[in-house]
């Protein structure tokens, strides 16, 4: 069995390949990346593959039995990009596709993100290729990367209100992908993947306070004010307003999931928030 990984030099892709090498021989893994020279440290074969260039995808996917299609990060272009990969996979004779989608993509209020994932899920189902859909929730790292700034600024800010967040570490999602890629009985399944324990941003601020011994409150801001604050921190305006809008969706329940399918797939509890905060504070 040969397994191809798109986006292999990204943060999730690198973790998947590292964990795959502990399960199967490195010669059975192919990193599919825009620039193969940047994948030299992965320890596996690398092929040029670009979601936007169908003309090179056929060659990139030749001989691949199972494909992990890690979703593109180019919001607004992903549906077409993913369709390019799926069509190339059909031509290349790929036998199975595993796709990283969005938590509860069919009903989430995060429509600006979900529409493209829903389109790709529909394309997969119409492709005739056996598939598995991994609907990944938020990465805990989306929040813990702001821990240092919160400590420096004296508060953790956001627009998520009392929305509960069932995030998990990126490594947990990578391990779930490996379990599906190397396991059996996953064809046609859609998994809603999220952390075992939900928390609010106020809970996160309280955990930061507990571990630092400082009073770091959570300050809930109106969406526009939060976006302006993010711009002030140096984020591009478009990205800042997207992040603020995602927080509003969080307040509406977009990131809460208590089915614990992720921990069942990986055979252990997901990383707790306290451990993630401790790592961010090191």
From TrEMBL:
<feature type="domain" description="NAD(P)-binding">
    <location>
        <begin position="7"/>
        <end position="182"/>
    </location>
</feature>
<dbReference type="Pfam" id="PF13460">
    <property type="entry name" value="NAD_binding_10"/>
</dbReference>
<keyword id="KW-0560">Oxidoreductase</keyword>
<dbReference type="GO" id="GO:0003955">
    <property type="term" value="F:NAD(P)H dehydrogenase (quinone) activity"/>
</dbReference>
<protein>
    <submittedName>
        <fullName>SDR family oxidoreductase</fullName>
        <ecNumber>1.6.5.2</ecNumber>
    </submittedName>
</protein>
<dbReference type="InterPro" id="IPR036291">
    <property type="entry name" value="NAD(P)-bd_dom_sf"/>
</dbReference>
<dbReference type="InterPro" id="IPR052718">
    <property type="entry name" value="NmrA-type_oxidoreductase"/>
</dbReference>
<dbReference type="InterPro" id="IPR016040">
    <property type="entry name" value="NAD(P)-bd_dom"/>
</dbReference>
């Amino acid at each position: 069995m040969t397994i191809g990984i798109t986006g292999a030099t990204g943060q999730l892709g690198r973790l998947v390949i590292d964990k795959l090498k502990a399960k199967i021989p490195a010669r059975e893994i192919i990193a599919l990346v825009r620039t193969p020279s940047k994948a030299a440290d992965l320890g596996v074969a690398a092929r040029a593959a670009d979601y936007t260039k169908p003309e090179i995808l056929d060659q990139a996917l030749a001989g691949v039995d199972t494909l992990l299609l890690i979703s593109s990060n180019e919001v607004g272009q992903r549906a077409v990009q993913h369709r390019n990969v799926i069509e190339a996979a059909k031509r290349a004779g790929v036998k199975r596709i595993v796709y990283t989608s969005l938590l509860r993509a069919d009903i989430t209020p995060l429509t600006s993100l979900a529409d493209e994932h829903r389109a790709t899920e529909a394309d997969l189902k119409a492709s005739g290729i056996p598939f598995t859909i991994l609907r990944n929730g938020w990465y805990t790292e989306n929040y813990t990367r702001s821990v240092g700034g919160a400590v420096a600024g004296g508060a953790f800010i956001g627009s998520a209100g009392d929305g509960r967040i069932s995030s998990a570490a990126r490594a947990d999602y990578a391990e779930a992908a490996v379990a599906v890629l190397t396991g059996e009985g996953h064809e046609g399944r859609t998994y809603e993947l999220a952390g075992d324990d939900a928390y609010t941003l106020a809970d996160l601020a309280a955990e930061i306070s507990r571990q630092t011994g400082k009073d770091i409150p959570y300050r809930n801001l109106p969406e526009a004010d939060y976006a302006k604050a993010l711009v002030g921190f140096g984020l591009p305006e478009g990205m800042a307003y997207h992040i603020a809008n995602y927080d509003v969706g969080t307040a509406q329940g977009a990131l809460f999931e208590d089915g614990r399918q992720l921990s069942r797939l990986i055979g252990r509890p997901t990383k707790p928030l306290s451990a993630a905060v401790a790592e961010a504070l090191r």
